[in-house]
Amino acid sequence: MGKIILNTEELPENYKRIVSNKKKNIEDLHNLYCQIVDYNTWVLPSTGLLPVLNEDLHAKNFSMHLLNKIYVGNLPYHTTKSDIHKMFEIFGPISSISLSVEGKSKLYSKKFGFVEFENPNAAVLAIKEMNTYEVDGKALKVGRPANFPSFIPDDIKNPDKRIIYVSNIHEFIDQNQLLSIFECVGKVEQLNLMLNKNRSCHMGIAFIKYQNIDSADLSVSLYNNLSVGGKILKVCKTVIKQKMPSKEIFQDTITKLPNEVIKIIADLNSKLNDKTENECLVLKNMIMVDDLDEDFINEIKLELKKYGEILELKIVVFQPTLLQYTILKEGDKKDVEVYCLFRNSESVNHCYRIMDGRYFGGRRIYAESIPKSEFNSI
């Protein structure tokens, strides 16, 4: 048997190459994982990590419907399709909802469902905002279904970063009013408020194209979760490459809200220059008086402490007829409002960004900041 002669001087270099190659493979896998997790960028590598031979098959079987679909798990057992629709309609028009149950026991069964939107932008917003949100004490699991495509056709990759998607627009806001609000952050090249099939009213969604990317970035950070006409706007960058929809015209002129739009524009211009200096945050629509107990008070204290030092916390039962504290009677249906006085305005701003528009026990929270003087008068 012949001898195998090794050149010991070459071994370290071989090891270095092996380690370098393995490190690169790990980095490639990590980058791919990040791309899959971040649904704003569906850009998959052309070679190396995906089987090239299967690309034609993936392309043939690709369906846009899969980009519009999300999985919703860990639902409370009593959840209905109507409940799901109310929770997710703020992100955009919904095509279909399906619900299923694993198991026969109400105590141990797992309820889950699928929501299909009419566009993929709504699906991305829903995943980002609703995953881990609590409904009746259960944290929702919101993500992509198992059959989400690993291959995205080239013609819809790389979305235009100047275009944003806006949902949950008030029915009485028209295109010109919406433009007045969104052009505060930069030059708008095109804005299209999408109409329903009979063109009598809009669908509550719009696409806006800015002149530059910086304006689009600022628009997303400023307008997402902004309250307009009592409805919380949802805003994100578009997630697929697309042309701006053609401009549509209403069949009838809708009612206008000029005074409110003027106020919103003034508030936005103020926010662009400075943040609120108020030290108190009010949380509304969290619970009804029937659900008010010591457990709720302790839970809300723990939650609010995450955002800064609390000086004082007030739980107010709001009765529209008296506008003051009242003696609680069984059967009364009163809203409970939470007033939190923080040490500084930075804590208020932080808490507002997190809590406004969030779900608690199936109810959508509305947050607003008020001055300390108003807090003291309660």
Automatic annotation (TrEMBL):
<protein>
    <submittedName>
        <fullName>Poly(U)-binding-splicing factor</fullName>
    </submittedName>
</protein>
<dbReference type="GO" id="GO:0000380">
    <property type="term" value="P:alternative mRNA splicing, via spliceosome"/>
</dbReference>
<dbReference type="InterPro" id="IPR051974">
    <property type="entry name" value="PUF60_regulator"/>
</dbReference>
<dbReference type="GO" id="GO:0003723">
    <property type="term" value="F:RNA binding"/>
</dbReference>
<dbReference type="Pfam" id="PF00076">
    <property type="entry name" value="RRM_1"/>
</dbReference>
<dbReference type="GO" id="GO:0071011">
    <property type="term" value="C:precatalytic spliceosome"/>
</dbReference>
<feature type="domain" description="RRM">
    <location>
        <begin position="68"/>
        <end position="147"/>
    </location>
</feature>
<dbReference type="InterPro" id="IPR012677">
    <property type="entry name" value="Nucleotide-bd_a/b_plait_sf"/>
</dbReference>
<dbReference type="GO" id="GO:0071013">
    <property type="term" value="C:catalytic step 2 spliceosome"/>
</dbReference>
<dbReference type="InterPro" id="IPR000504">
    <property type="entry name" value="RRM_dom"/>
</dbReference>
<dbReference type="GO" id="GO:0006376">
    <property type="term" value="P:mRNA splice site recognition"/>
</dbReference>
<dbReference type="GO" id="GO:0000381">
    <property type="term" value="P:regulation of alternative mRNA splicing, via spliceosome"/>
</dbReference>
<dbReference type="InterPro" id="IPR003954">
    <property type="entry name" value="RRM_euk-type"/>
</dbReference>
<dbReference type="InterPro" id="IPR035979">
    <property type="entry name" value="RBD_domain_sf"/>
</dbReference>
<feature type="domain" description="RRM">
    <location>
        <begin position="162"/>
        <end position="235"/>
    </location>
</feature>
<keyword id="KW-0694">RNA-binding</keyword>
